[in-house]
Amino acid sequence: MSFSLLPGLITDELTDLSPELLRSRNIRLLMMDFDNTIVPYTTDVPTEKMEQWLTMMLASDIAICVVSNSRNDRVKIFCGKYGIPVITRAKKPGTRGIRACLAKFGVEPKNAALVGDQIFTDTLGANNAGVTPILVKAIDNHNIWLKLRHVAELPFIFAAGKRRITK
């Protein structure tokens, strides 16, 4: 829809998002990036807090789906273990994977959000598809490239600072 690198909402972690908060913003579908949003790149084992959050979200009336650029089988295995629908090879910031997810759930873009840790893929992809972009801090910027990417994202995070969700 529109080229923008500004997130609609910013929060520290995925588990800050509650069904009540999402409902208050008319969001019925929460698409989630996988690596560094749900688990670090280096593992596929969620924290206990994340596991409890996933269980709560699956029991809620908010649909969830992992939309990942990954080609790695660990994403599908993780989602299968937890019963989470998944779309891989999403090609964010393109909209192919996001549009496929919207069609799969029969949800209009205005009633969907995409949460992820990267502005140049997740936030831009969400804005391109007309869904609400939600930015979370990366779980672990474990290498120099991820750290440099984060530095490049700082001006956009600062510009969108008033969109931060407070606990």
Main beta sheet strand tally, sense and closure: 6 strands, parallel
User: Could you name the CATH topology?
Assistant: Rossmann fold
Q: Counting H and I runs of at least 4 residues, what is the number of helices?
A: 6
Instruction: Using the coordinates above, name the CATH class.
Output: Alpha Beta
What number of domains?
Answer: 1
Overview features:
167 residues, alpha/beta, Rossmann fold, 6 helices, 14% strand
Structural description of this entry:
By secondary structure, the protein is of the alpha/beta class. It has a single domain (9-162), classed as HAD superfamily/HAD-like (Rossmann fold), CATH 3.40.50. Helix content is 39%, strand content 14%. The protein has helices at residues 19-24, 48-59, 73-82, 96-105, 119-129, 144-159, and strands at residues 9-11, 29-32, 63-67, 86-87, 112-116, 132-136. A 6-stranded parallel sheet has the order 1-6-5-2-3-4. Strand 3, helix 3 and strand 4 (86-87) form a beta-alpha-beta unit. The longest helix has 16 residues, at 144-159. The chain starts with 8 loop residues before the first strand and ends in an 8-residue tail after the last helix.
Quickly describe the structure.
This protein has a single domain (9-162), classed as 3-Layer(aba) Sandwich (Rossmann fold), CATH 3.40.50.
